[in-house]
Design goal:
Elements: E1 25-26, E2 32-40, H1 43-52, H2 62-73, E3 83-91, E4 96-101, E5 110-113, E6 118-121, H3 124-128, H4 139-148, E7 161-163, E8 168-173, E9 176-181, H5 195-213, E10 220-223, H6 228-240, E11 245-249, H7 261-270, E12 274-278, H8 282-296, H9 304-316, E13 321-323, H10 328-332, H11 336-343, H12 358-389, H13 395-403, H14 416-422, H15 428-437, H16 443-449
Parallel strand pairs: 10-11, 10-13, 11-12
Antiparallel strand pairs: 1-2, 2-3, 3-4, 4-8, 5-6, 5-7, 8-9
Length: about 450
């Protein structure tokens, strides 16, 4: 605590497990104070650079690297950081609070502002403990969740509480709040490079990324689904972390489409890793769901959260840090919608599609019968014509149709009370803004940028 500033932190020790890594952390003259969530993977290189410039360290943490880098470069220090992070730094000499969130928003950063206070935290529930912070729903944020699965722009599901967008920094002082975008994707196309050179460079980049992610003084393992992404990460990690443990889940029923553990076991064997497996069921989902929603602080967009939580709970019994293949599909175009929007076709044969359970087929047939009875033959024919016309939609319309539900004004499941609260709000523009603003004219890259 200092005057009107208070910083608090609950530490998960990953780098330098000693008391020297406790937070809030300060510099030599106690003019800078930092609380930091996450990990800076290039802290070793940055630390050496700062030592060469005359800085003295009292710990071996990545946290202290941020403090000394800020002394050298001010708010532009965040542009040098390679990692996943959210942090707040109090600069007492300047009387300002400097905060930043990592490039892709892996670590959360929420804040609340009124006429007299700026309050921030990793979780919304911490902000709700502050007196005067409203415990009310943000109806636009909820409409975003129902439309796209998550709040758009800087909204959350809670009224008055915002999130700092990925790749943004923030300054709070007596002049108010200022937010700045410090990073964006840069596309540098090289059409002269050969296929072999591209493969070699990609392998180097992947190996280097996994190598620095393996920097941990705590025990480390890998989530391993048996798919391409997690298997690739596990393979590279085994180069730098021998005798790892891997963690997988298996669902009984559904056949081989839902069970890739055979591949996971082969990969674990190849990586000389110790294989661990969990087999959750419907009862586990029912037991976990309330707590999962409490942690997520928003409606669950898909069942994947249950799977991820289950395998993370298994991993927590053995290690403190895990690497995953999350983000691979977004970077390497692993989703059908990306190909369908960019090229007008799906990347996988129809025979490889997920099987539709018999009950699902019966439900679709019953639904069609109900529509036919309600609309009549002529009305049903008009509806089919409308659907055919949708094939001639713009890439933006196609992208939305492949990812989102109907907008609030067209969603018959929403109550009139909610629609009244929304007052005509539509999440479409906020949702598609990243697609529109992508700094490239290549359609597939615009899809990946979104």
């Amino acid at each position: 605590m200092e005057d009107s500033i208070g910083l608090g932190h609950r530490r998960l020790s990953i780098v330098d497990l000693t008391d020297a890594g406790h937070q809030p952390m300060t510099n030599e003259d106690r003019s800078l104070w930092l609380v930091f969530n996450g990990e800076v993977y290039n802290y070793v290189e940055l630390r050496q650079e700062l030592v060469d410039r005359g800085h003295r360290f009292t710990s071996h943490t990545d946290t202290e690297v941020i403090i000394h880098l800020y002394e050298e470069e001010g708010e532009r220090c965040v542009e040098r950081l390679r990692g996943m992070f959210a942090f707040v730094l109090w600069d007492s000499r300047r009387g300002r609070l400097f905060a930043a969130r990592d490039r892709l928003g892996i670590k959360p950063f929420h804040y609340y502002v009124d006429r007299t206070r700026f309050i921030c935290a990793s979780e919304v529930k911490a902000l709700l403990e502050a007196p005067g912070v409203p415990r009310q729903a943000d109806y636009a944020g909820l409409a975003d969740c129902l439309f796209a699965g998550f709040p758009q722009s800087d909204r959350t599901a809670f009224s008055g509480i915002r999130q700092l967008p990925p790749g943004f920094s923030l300054i709070a002082d007596r002049n108010g709040i200022r937010v700045r975008k410090y990073w964006d994707v840069e596309y540098q196309y090289n059409f002269t490079r050969s296929h072999a050179e591209t493969v070699d460079e990609l392998e180097h980049l992947l190996d280097d990324a996994v190598r620095v992610h393996c920097r941990s003084d705590a025990r480390l393992g890998c989530h391993l689904s048996g798919g391409l992404d997690s298997s690739t990460v596990t393979g590279f990690a085994s180069r730098h972390r021998p005798a790892m443990k891997t963690f997988s889940i298996r669902f009984e029923g559904g056949g081989s489409w839902y069970d890739e553990t055979a591949f996971a076991k082969v990969m674990a064997l190849s990586a000389k890793a110790q294989y661990h497996e969990a087999v959750p069921n419907g009862e586990d989902l029912a037991n976990v769901l309330p707590g999962l929603l409490w942690h997520m602080e928003m409606p669950l967009p898909n069942p994947g959260g249950f799977s991820y939580y289950t395998v993370s709970r298994l991993a927590a019994e053995h290690v403190k840090v895990t690497l995953t293949g999350h983000g691979g599909d977004e970077v390497f175009a692993g989703y059908s919608a990306q190909f369908q929007t960019a090229f007008g076709t799906r990347p996988f044969p129809a025979g490889d599609a997920e099987p539709v359970p018999r009950i699902g087929r019966l439900t679709r047939a019953a639904r069609f019968g109900a529509r036919l009875a309600a609309l009549g033959v002529a009305g049903t024919a008009r509806r089919i014509k409308q659907r055919v016309r949708r094939e001639l939609q713009t890439p933006e319309d196609l992208w939305i149709s492949l990812h989102c539900a109907r907008p609030p004004s067209q969603n018959s499941l929403l109550s009139r009370r909610l629609l009244t609260q929304l007052n005509g709000y539509s999440p479409i523009d906020d949702y598609i803004s990243a697609f529109r603003s992508a700094p490239t004219d290549q359609m597939l890259d615009r899809c990946l940028y979104h």
